[in-house]
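Hi W.,

Here's what went into the run:
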Amino acid sequence: MNWQILLQIGSQVVPILTTVEGDIAAVVAVVNALRGAGYQADTDALTAAIADDDVRAAISKAIADAPEAANEPASEPAK
Amino acid sequence: MRFKPILLVLAVLALAGCAAKARHVATVTVVSAKGALDITQDTEPLLVCGVATAPPAPACVTADVHKAIHAQLAEAYEVHKQLATAVRDWPQGQPAPATIPAYLAQITELLQHIVDALPAGGTKDRLTTLLTGGKS
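Here's what came out:
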């Protein structure tokens, strides 16, 4: 299950972070940063974002570089 | 429907504001940009031809487009990492790093290309609404 933090700006609601369940440190860091908890809280949020960027970049790179056959969705019905 | 990168435009404007709060505003911007990338990465696989959630062709994402989108997403995450690192390493009391607007522009352009590559339909519309804060 994914958790998503939404930020409301006036009447707009925008997603600011999607994280997997259990990744509480990232959520707490972002919430503290949004509360303006200070320089260190911002640093913690950015560090968490950088770490997650590495993970997500690797996921997308694996998809982009996958051989054609291995990239077919598993649920595709047989023809 | 054209994707309007409201989040990243807000970021550029915010960086021109009060220096004392600029790093915090930039942090929120970085996290917002990451949210835009993350929701795109999470949503696009739902549209790939053959998966249960995808509409039938030609309204689904073909394998070639799927791979091209993720090549762009991988690049966008690398740029985002550079952006987040620049903001994290921004010394207190110093002017904003000059690289920040360029990184934001690159991420915006990549997101624009990705959203444009998605076939028209409800999922694309919902994604566009999320990315633009309802201003699509």
